[in-house]
Amino acid sequence: MDPWVRMRNSGPMTVQRRLTTVRDSLRTQLWPVPTAAVVLALVAGVLLPELDRAIDDRLPGAVTDVLFGGGASAARTLLDAIASSLITVTSLTFSLTVVTLQLASGQYSPRLLRTFTRDRLVHVTLGVFLATFAYALTVLRTVRSPDDDQPLFVPQISVTVGFVLAVGSVVVLVVFLAHLAREIRLETMVRNVGADASAAIDRLVPDNRPDGEDRPLAPGELAGPLQDAVPILASGSGFVTAVDHAALVDRAVKAEAVVVIDRSPGAFVVAGTPIGRVCRPTVGDREAVSDLARSLSRLVTVGVERTDAQDWTFGLRQLTDVTVRALSPGVNDPTTAVHTLGYTSALLCRAARRPHQDHVGRDDSGRVRLLRTVPTFEEVLDAAVTPVRRYGAADPTVLARLLQLLREVAWSAQTPDSQVAVADQLARVRATVRAQDFDAAELRQLDAHGRDVEQATTGRWYGPPSR
């Protein structure tokens, strides 16, 4: 089978999306950037003193005037001060950061901490601090004075670079603290979550797919082959973070099998329970199919937390968590809930304009080799609306914003199924309103919002939106 055809038919797990998965995994770790910075600092701390040995005596006066001009004792004092102060600042800064993040997670949602661990400025700040510390220590070991029974050596260029790094670290510290103060604001957090989720929707649910990619199944196309299927069992317990479509299609083609994965990225699975099934319609060797199922289970990655590498609904889950936490009795902040519902509505409207169809992988002859089911728009809408409707049932302001959300989604929905999903949610919100003890004015306002939703679902608009 031609590799390009196989890659094209593999659904969303193209090479670009594989790189996205790897990049997302690295971005959420705090160690890669600081480790690389420390290694570079160690290399510079070894090589720059050698450069000093080679050219210090031949530098023109105009250059030496701007370089470090002290003796060995002054150089040692300066480098020791840089090293000791930087490691203290590093520990203090990140201790305060951890405390701040704990407060933010308790106030909003622990799942928002992921947005901080993948923050590039956090990585760069830690890298600059640790690199300056490592560089100062490395250069310090090369400074020699006559008292050491060795020739005097003060690496002017190296010490000057250490001084510049120390000053740069102070600037980075100021920028980092200002950045942190901005990042822990609710407005910034929900905006970042919404931006990440929007990018994930564009990446994972494109408007237009190439010809033949994910072509929907014909009626009954898989009914026969999967009647006698062998289950694919989860390799571990946790969240499905990635499904390697290309490898699954490749294995299925080689084994002349059909694979169905019915647990999408973001779903929690338990080790040893089915996440899909596989069969070989032309071969009745069940033992061979069982061996194939065990090998296929390793192509479904299970992790300890959800990511948006292949799961755009994770951002929606984060926004819903913030909304529900704001409505809890301990926080009681409906203004935050209404604010966050605006971003939730923007995501749902973006998703409502996209086709939500199962991913289908075919071989070069057009035969189905892989089917991965995805959540329907009805399920996505329900997951975003139902928790808010339940926990915000007693607040007419929240219910009014929820009805506005449904109106906005109805105007963006592209399929009859999506309109039906909005109408179902409208009926449930109205039932919630009837069960509450609201005054007549509040009921009239909510009823007007409900009529706006009805008009949006039918494509008619009789006047300005209710206020």
Automatic annotation (TrEMBL):
Annotated TM spans: 30-48, 81-101, 121-140, 160-181
The keyword Membrane appears for this protein: yes
Superkingdom to which the source organism belongs: Bacteria
Assigned keywords, A-Z: Membrane, Transmembrane, Transmembrane helix
Pfam families with a match to the protein in the record: DUF2254
Name assigned to this protein: DUF2254 domain-containing protein
Lineage summary: Bacteria, Bacillati, Actinomycetota, Actinomycetes, Nakamurellales
